[in-house]
Input
Amino acid sequence: MAGFKPFTPRPQNNNAQGNQNRGRRPAKENPNRINNEITAPTVRVVGDNVEPNLVLPIAKAIALADEMELDLVEISPNAEPPVCRIVDYQKFLYQQKKKQKEIKAKQTKVVIKEIRFGPQTDDHDFNFKLRHAENFIKEGAKVKAYVFFRGRSIVFKEQGEILLLRFATALEDIAKVEVMPTLEGKKMNMILAPKPKKN
Output
């Protein structure tokens, strides 16, 4: 039949090629160089069941990892000589990801609480909202205080700015102004952040 090409099976890797290609991935997925990706001529080898202070030519280090049916993973490329660990690379990656998740979980998330005022807020309402803001800041949250100008009340924008600055002054012992009063459309916003705690 014209244009028909017989199927030719792809030659299989021999054992040497299999060892050479073990653990290879596209570079963008590879946070560490492993096995034949390692370019240093000599490396310091660490890992379970590896004698301490073992320095080997790279070929012997890879051969040692192959004997253990594990990977040679470069963990400190800038050391002299570079440090490589003999380890199961998939297990190594899993442990690294687990550590990163634990670090992320420990990082405090920035919470922003909103306090809304009108341009002619009375003292009772002001003090009520001030107490709420104090609690938020003591809990470590930022506070976004804003004055909302409804309809023609925009003519009181200076009054709104004075109100926000008064609010910031009342909280100055525990909070600092991160963003000064700024008019955006019908809202004048100000952001307060907790002051660092003194040791």
